[in-house]
Amino acid sequence: MSAAQDPAAGQQPPARAEAGHDHGQRKYEEYAYVLDYTPRGKSATVRGREGVIVQAIGEERLTLLELLGVQNSTFEVGERLYIGREGRNKIMSVLGRLDYNDVSQSAKNELPAIVEKVVLANEKRFVDYINMSQPITPRIHALELIPGIGKTYMMTIIKEREKKRFESFADLQNRVGLREPAKLVAKRIIEEIMGQARMNLFVRK
Asked: Positions of the region Disordered (predicted)?
């Protein structure tokens, strides 16, 4: 769908821009995962907009998004949707970003499982983060901000990655003894989405 055909494209371009990526990477989200949808709902981000309202989480920036679905489309919770600029088939437009308090209770309930699904589907990206993360202040290492990783695990992770970078979550768990690292990363992401973190490691603002 072109911008001219996109009913929301002319209304909220800043929201589209915010869904982009920094550091020269992709500017727009290309995929999002469904958290909840309403066949005949009202937008929380665009006044007067009604239709198939989908609440979702973006795959790259991990922000909560409100989408306008194609009329009569149906969605599954956890479904991965293409929301890129061209060639969408179930989504008419990205209406804007949502705060955690704006999403439905159903979406909140689904969030932990969907975030973990995103983490596992993008395992290399998150394992790379663990391989590359550095101190963020003279006294705090980024790894310490992931739930379940205290100074002891942090030191073990740093020593092990100096020998050889981790190749997967399973590799990390086997070599360090850290249980279910994907769940721990997902927990940190949810804290950031809920606004409970003082600084974000994964969720783009």
From this structure: 1-23
Give the Cα separation of 59 and 35 in Å (integer). Answer: 12
Q: Which domain holds residue 57?
A: 31-103
The pair of structure tokens assigned to 152 is 């002891």
Over the stretch 32-84, which tens digit does the pLDDT of each residue have? Answer: 999 999 999 999 999 999 999 999 999 999 999 999 999 999 999 999 999 99
The alpha helices in 57-198, defined as continuous H runs, are 105-121, 123-132, 151-163, 169-176, 181-193
Tally of domains within the chain = 2
> What is d(CA 200, CA 142) in angstroms, rounded to the nearest whole number?
10
The sheet with strand 31-42 has its strands ordered as 80-82, 31-42, 50-58, 64-69, 91-98
Task: Quote the pTM value.
Answer: 0.85
Does some domain include residue 21?
A: no
- Which of 103, 138, 157 lies at the terminal end of a domain, its last residue? 103
Please, are residues 168 and 123 in contact by the beta-carbon 8 Å criterion? yes
Does residue 88 belong to any structural domain of this protein?
A: yes
What's the CATH number where 85 sits? 2.40.50.140
The rounded radius of gyration (Å) of the Cα atoms in the chain is 18
Low-confidence stretches of the chain (pLDDT beneath 70): 1-27
User: 63 with 115, same domain?
Assistant: no
